[in-house]
Amino acid sequence: MNLHIFHWFLRFPYVVRLLFIVIFILIAFGTIIHFIEPDNFPTIFDGIWWAIVTTSTVGYGDFVPGTVKGRIVAMLLIFSGAGLVASYFAAIASTTVKKENAIIKGTAQVHWKHHFIIVGWNERSREIIESYKKIHPNQSIVLIDSTLKESPFAKGTNVLFIKGSATSDTILHQANVKEASLILITANPTRSEYSSDMYTILSIVAIKGLVPQIYCIAEILTDEQVINAKRAGADEIIQSNKIVSAVMNHTMLSHGISDAILNLLDTYHGVELTFIEDKSLSGHTFESAVNICLEEQKILLGFKRGEKTEIAPAKETVLLPSDQLLVIVRQQ
Question: Where is this gene product found (predicted)?
Fold first, then answer.
């Protein structure tokens, strides 16, 4: 039984165990001095108060042992308790420093829930984090990257850095991927397009192997690897090269359109491009739905039916109950 209690005690962190020992010594010496000198220490609380003041080296002098036995108890307390109390405060300081270093170096364990995980540190991920935090400052975000030497984020922010590869189960567990609500894998700009896509697909396999239900967004650079990313389990694929090429093509046809597209896609400008479900518009023609949406301060651009998205369909097209409407809305 005693061995079981001892093993149970050893499971606690070092600082907690040391705190228990210090509290036990203070209570024990406080109780002993009360029974040895009840006149100088009328209550056990007075004895404990004296033990705390003595071990902390404050020494108020409001309670002082007057007998030889009492002074011997005081000497034993000074030799044993004072060292333990000093060790306790030193342990707290050491633990705090280690925790700060772990956060900076990317070795800290994440305990958040419903957080976002972003894989890869580059200009895109930096812009994503900064822009998203402006709109949702309370959202916790974890960055996984193997190239950074230390965290690029200021202390006190709810953005944590984990140093390592998203293909490693150890790193994914460290990022608490099982409690995350979303993961975004960005392409590595320092690798070739093929190599970057291979790393992204391997990351998807590792992530989905641990948490099949997590929503995974992956950036793929080459057309031929899109199907492999889908097979690996990606819920949504961003073909960044195609998006950039499309913007460039539109800019060549209509000069200055790139700024308008950027403002439309940048959530910080107060508008949001999103899908909504509105069963009340089922059975309406697209033309009728556009007018109804305008009255609700929404701009209807098209709809998603199954896996296909229709932009600016024919005005006589009839909306179905399962259609997801693509609209531009002003953020609340």
Answer: Cell membrane
Expressed as residue numbers, the domain containing 319 is: 270-330
| Residues 250-306 pLDDT 10s | 889 898 888 888 887 776 567 788 899 999 999 999 999 999 999 999 999 999 998
DSSP state of 268: G
Residues 125 and 98 in one domain: no
φ/ψ (deg, to 5) at 70: -65, -40
Find all residues with CB under 8 Å of 156, minimum gap 6, and list them: none
DSSP annotation string for 140-185: -EEEEESS-SS--S-TTSSEEEEES-TT-HHHHHHTTGGG-SEEEE
Give the C-alpha separation, 111 to 124, whole Å.
26
Distance between CA atoms of 114 and 101, rounded to whole angstroms? 25
pLDDT in tens, 142-196: 999 999 999 998 776 789 999 999 999 999 999 999 999 999 999 998 899 999 9
Residue 188 to residue 67: CA distance in whole angstroms: 75
20 and 46 both lie in a single domain: yes
Q: No. of H helices and E strands in the chain?
A: 11, 10
Find tokens 């200021």 and name the residue. Answer: 154
- Closest by CA to 147, choosing from 170, 120, 109, 126, is 120
Distance CA 137, CA 12 (A): 35
> Is there a contact between 187 and 219 (Cβ–Cβ < 8 Å)?
yes
Listed residues 104, 131, 160: the one ending a domain = 104
Distance, in Å, from the CA atom of 272 to the CA atom of 295, rounded to the nearest integer, reads 17
Tell me if 265 is assigned to some domain.
no
